[in-house]
Amino acid sequence: MKTRGIVKTGATLALIAAICTALVAGTWRITRDRIAANRKAQLEQSLAPALADLVYDSGVTESRLVIPPTDELPGAGPVLVYRVFSADKPVAALFIVTARDGFSGPIRILVGADYDGSVTGVRILEHHETPGLGDRIDQSKSDWVYQFDGRSIGDPPADHWSIHEDGGDFDQLTGASITPRAVIKAVRDTLLYYEAHREEIFTLPATVDEDKDEE
Amino acid sequence: MTRGGFVDRLKAGLWKDNPGLVQLLGLCPLLAVTTSLVNGFGLGLATLLVLTVSNGLVSATRRWIRHEIRIPIYVLIIASLVTCVELVFEAWFPALDRSLGIFIPLIVTNCAIVARAEVFASRNPVLPSLADGIGMGAGFAATLMALGAFRELVGQASILSGLDMLTGGERFAGFGLGHGGLLLAILPPGAFFSLGLAVAAKNAIDRRRRTSRSETMRPGFRRPA
């Protein structure tokens, strides 16, 4: 009698679990295509500002290259690179790097540079800096990131890539120096890496997306 | 279920037993996402949907669910509903979904939802349970929106910023009402202050109502000045 009770209870649980799974699976099927399209559009929309007014071929998001963690690049994790071509000639590269020496938490930065190594745009993708102080690195809060436009290693020289307070050529933010330091250093290191590995970056095949949904 | 019963459930959720202001449930999302009115509305809407449907399902299945396994069943139902709501938000309100981030999946852990399943839906028929879900969900959403609007007004001196997350189109910075604002209101301590003020305001209103009622009931009674 007791066993029957357990079996019945277990069966109820299994039945409800099956119904719930079906519900989630159905919703996923209905929303899947929209979500994939949204993500792609969002990615393209977030990459475009770092390319200034360059003319380029479509399919930037398909050119993704994943660089395994290296000491030459900021952050401890892999770095994403989107290669930008115009009529099959390389024109620019977009790096998504993470600075881990900000004031609070990682800062994800999009660094765009043309083929010659001049910055086409820097955008902050994600950060957790103090509102009102460090968060002015965010392009929605102030114009601070636009000072990188057109700069390169050599303009100013690598040892001048720091804030004025440290003898460098870049503006600081009132009340926050750790945050701008972290961002400037990340952009500088990215440009140095780009300069050293340019050929390699544009010739390697795109990294295959491993977690792509399979049918 | 009578119309009066439905109105009673709504009143309980919106005012008398408001999950945010009276039961003080679900404070984690309440405090975390109320940095703007639109954020508050987004999470409020998601919670309302999950709470209403979960109340309905728990109530509809209450006769077949043995007492011993009710909690895993609630968790299963709530987690599935939250996953569905998250997928729907990501498909149709992608910007809002990004703005609310982890707090949509975290609706699973909002104790207000399990509490309604346990306290109300598992003991009442489907219609009153749905009404309870709508009332409690609306009460939670109203609290989120009130706190969001207050913190946005005080902290940024603007209102309805990020409305584009609901309607699509260009980024909308909100209707400005001046410059600056008191930063503290946007920071986490501001959330606690705002909630404290809201609870105090509700209690003050309730007390005033009680006193005026007792005065009308006993005309001879006068409160000492």
How would you characterize the overall build of this protein?
The complex is a heterodimer of chains A (215) and B (225). Helix content of chain A is 33%, strand content 18%. In chain A, strand 4 and strand 5 (119-126) form a beta hairpin. The two termini of chain A are 45 Å apart. Chain A has one domain. In chain A, strands 1-2-3-4-5 form a five-stranded antiparallel sheet, covered by helices on one side. Chain A is an alpha+beta fold and 215 residues long. Chain A has helices at residues 2-47, 178-203, and strands spanning 64-67, 79-86, 89-99, 107-114, 119-126. Chain A is built from two helices and five strands; from the N terminus they run αβββββα. The N and C termini of chain B lie far apart (46 Å). The longest helix of chain B is centred in the middle third of the chain and has 31 residues, at 126-156. Chain B is globular. The model of chain B has no long low-confidence stretch (mean pLDDT 86). Chain B has one domain (3-217). Chain B has helices at 3-16, 27-33, 37-60, 70-92, 94-100, 111-119, 126-156, 164-167, 188-217; strands spanning 158-159, 175-176. Chain B has a two-stranded antiparallel ribbon with strand order 1-2. Chain B is mainly α and 225 residues long. Chain B is 66% helix and 2% strand. The chains are: A alpha+beta (215), B mainly alpha (225). Chain A binds chain B through residues 5, 8-9, 12-13, 16-17, 20-21, 23-24, 27-28, 30-31, 34-35, 38-39, 42, 131-132, 140, and chain B through 61, 64-66, 68-69, 72-73, 76-77, 79-81, 83-84, 87-88, 90-92, 94, 98, 171, 183, 186-187.
Short description:
The complex is a heterodimer of chains A (215) and B (225). Chain A is an alpha+beta fold.
What's the structural domain tally of chain A? 1
Low-confidence stretches of chain B: none
Strand fraction of chain A: 15-25%
Q: What class, by secondary structure content of chain B?
A: mainly alpha
What's the alpha carbon Rg of chain A, rounded to whole Å? 23 Å
Strand order of the largest sheet of chain B: 1-2
Number of helices, where a helix is a run of at least 4 consecutive DSSP H or I residues of chain B: 9
For the termini of chain A, the CA-CA separation is 45 Å
Major pleated sheet of chain A: 5 strands, antiparallel
| C-alpha end-to-end distance of chain B | 46 Å
**Strands of the largest sheet of chain A, in order across it?**
1-2-3-4-5
**How many individual β-strands of chain A?**
5
